[in-house]
Amino acid sequence: MNSSDNFSKNKHTVLTFRIIYTCLMILLFLSGCEPYNYTPVTTHEVTETLGLEEVWKRDNVFIGYSGNPIMVASEGIIAFLGGLDINDQSTLTTLSAESGELLWQKGYGSPNEIFASSDALFVGQSGLAGVTKLDLTTGAIVWHTSLEARGLRNLTVLGDEIHVDTAAMTDKFFVLNATTGEIVRQVDTDTYLSFWNIEVDNQIFRVSVFTEDANLILEDGKIYCLEPTIGKVKWQTEYIAASNLVVAEDLVFFLTKDGQLQALDLQTGELRYFVRFDTDRFILSGEAHIGGYNVAYDPQTKLIFAQLGDSAQLFAFQILK
In 3D, which of 321, 314, 208, 206 has the Cα closest to residue 261? Predict the structure, then answer.
């Protein structure tokens, strides 16, 4: 083989490597969730509580970082996009809400968001966008609907409708029937913007949590609570939140950057309950290779769950009345 052949072969090898690398980076971007193959950098204990009581905790609960809800709870079951071992990748895991014991796990492509109803889990899949409905207790697939889009960004279930936003890549917005998975309609951009987005102080924000009494916005750690119909701000916080938001009855739960689990009154924004961990500051993503911070609420057991990214621990708390 002469030198020109060697040059062509090496050039072809480099080009192939670059194509493979680029494809991998695109898939990682589209997946929405950062991988969770990290080592915990600390451990935490509860040092003070008000209105909440620790029920159990579990170590080695690995959940990646995402801007979407990736831990939910319903009917005595916790579900999250993650695993119980650092080598688990793209795994959907469910635990008993009352004990933290493993129920079932399922390997699952490139999920980036989940939503729980009383009998099902709805999993949003990025990359080649799609939605899958799973039986909550067994993990069996009820239906799967593929969408002609890429980069699923948001998914929420309202009544018997699933609203899906794939605008991250394709500006396509879908409404699915939650029972059958059938695409009921594809929504135009103006309708989409009026549903997901809202203007506050001359800025456009995306609604994070929809409820009958209020809509919540989480933007860079700052929480806005708005009237659900007119969009008037009822209350807002400083830039304190480190996790997603979850509504439990008349309370809004979230983890704070300064090492607390807080519950604010949904109507007034006043602090009602809290848990203080043994730190004055959680280690956040970007400061170390860690997972995200997540909270969830199970209406059946009335337990609040808090997963800490820097320690890979999952805590369960009972709300005391």
Answer: 314
Helices (H), 38-94: none
| Model confidence band, residue 46 (pLDDT cutoffs 50, 70, 90) | very high
Tell me the whole-structure pTM to 2 decimals: 0.84
* Dist CA 194 CA 46 (whole Å): 42
Number of residues that this document lists for the chain: 321
Indicate the pairing of strand 77-83 with strand 71-74: antiparallel
Is the pLDDT at 19 greater than 60? The verdict is: no
Cα–Cα distance, 304 to 313 (Å, whole number): 14
Number of neighbours of residue 199 by Cβ within 10 angstroms: 9
- Amino acid code (one letter) for 270: E
Written as one string, the DSSP assignment of 36-48 is ----------EEE
pLDDT of residue 103: 96
Q: How far apart are CA 237 and CA 155, in angstroms?
A: 25
The SS3 assignment for 131 reads strand
Amino acid at 73: A
**What count of other Cβ atoms lies within 10 Å of the Cβ of residue 59?**
12
* CB distance 174 to 166 below 8 Å: yes
For residues 313 and 58, the answer to whether their CB atoms sit within 8 Å is: yes
